Amino acid sequence: MDKELRQQFAAFLDEDRVDDDVTSRAVVPAAARATGTATAREAGTVAGMREALILAELSDLEARALVADGDAVPAGTALVELHGSAHALLGLERTLLNLMSHLSGIATQASRAVALVAGTGTRIAATRKTLPGLRDLEKRAVILGGAEPHRRDLSAAALIKENHLVFAESLARAVADARAVLGPDVHLEVEAETIEQAVAGARAGADTVMLDNMDPWTVGSAIEALRQAGLREAVEVECSGGITPANTREYADAGADVISMGALTMSAPALDINFTIAAAGSQSLAETPPAPSRLRGR
Q1: Does residue 90 share a domain with residue 43?
Q2: Residue 232 in contact with residue 223, Cβ under 8 Å?
Q3: 212 noted as active-site residue
Q4: 61 with 157, same domain?
Q5: Domain interval for residue 176
Q6: Is residue 288's pLDDT more than 70?
Q7: Out of 129, 135, 232, 296, which one is annotated catalytic?
Q8: Are residues 61 and 171 in the same domain?
Q9: Is the per-residue pLDDT at 290 higher than 50?
Q10: Is residue 161 among the annotated active site residues?
Q11: Is residue 51 domain-shared with residue 127, that is, in the same domain?
């Protein structure tokens, strides 16, 4: 995985033409050395530390992580310090900030959603609404925020949605066909837009029923219908669509096992992180005791 990340991040740096930074070439002496520090300007949950260290390595910079991925930090917290060529620091700056700010924003959004359902037993999950090329990074950020990644891709689980049902005789038949082709070991989920569909999907043998775009009251009614049909214990109930911070707790209180939210990845605001550079003269990282590595999920 680290090899793949290095290749991916090298491509990110190449995309920004870091080897042909005309501004630095014109203004900054080629031999100049400096220290750069990334600092959180607002409170949040950190993600992207692993990525920052890989980018530093690719840029031949010394790096020291000052916090760990998954840490909740207050505004003003220094996250990572880099030391080496001023040209390399200036070339790295935007790619590093883009990744750290984006991933920390996702982790922060996820941690806030998890906090909203604390004590209910309901789990928060992401969806496949990820940016191409960043899927695994965004899914990891969701996990660092305390939520679940849901299925990684189309091969990870079966999810029968309304557009699949265009080609099926019925939802029950679609579930039966999926089981016949995929066998019992592939997790099978069905999207239900009505209470009747939810019961039909559970009765047909789905592992999870996703209640799509239902308000909390209807979710409670659907769960009661599953209970009365003797199906509640046999199926996981997921809610998705139209869920915001203002109503997340209502869905949990209605009895949802899982709440999946595309907003965790698709529209999470970037965490405000800045990068400051100081010319050489401060103590080198090599002269300071190394901080113990606390990075998780490497």
Answers
A1: yes
A2: yes
A3: yes
A4: no
A5: 119-266
A6: no
A7: 129
A8: no
A9: no
A10: yes
A11: no
Out of 6, 94, 135, 296, which one is annotated catalytic?
A: 94
CA-to-CA dists, residue 201 to 143, 175, 220, angstroms: 29, 7, 17
The model's pLDDT over 164-183, given as tens digits with 9 standing for 90+, comes to 999 988 899 999 999 999 99
Catalytic residue list contains 191? yes
Q: Is the pLDDT of residue 139 over 50?
A: yes
Question: Would you say the pTM of this structure is higher than 0.70?
Answer: yes
Write a three-state SS string for the chain.
CHHHHHHHHHHHHHHCCHHHCHHHHHHCCCCCEEEEEEEECCCEECCCHHHHHHHHHHCCCEEEECCCCCCEECCCCEEEEEEEEHHHHHHHHHHHHHHHHHHHHHHHHHHHHHHHCCCCCCEEECCCCCCCCCHHHHHHHHHHCCCECCCCCCCCCEEECHHHHCCCCCHHHHHHHHHHHHCCCCCEEEEECCHHHHHHHHHHCCCEEEEECCCHHHHHHHHHHHHHCCCHHHCEEEEECCCCCCCHHHHHHHCCCEEECCHHHHCCCCCCEEEEEEECCCCCHHHCCCCCCCCCCC
Q: Give the chain's domain count.
A: 2
Which residue out of 161, 179, 249, 296 is catalytically annotated?
Answer: 161
Q: Are 250 and 273 found together in one domain?
A: no
Per annotation, catalytic residue among 69, 138, 189, 191: 191
Residues in the chain: 298
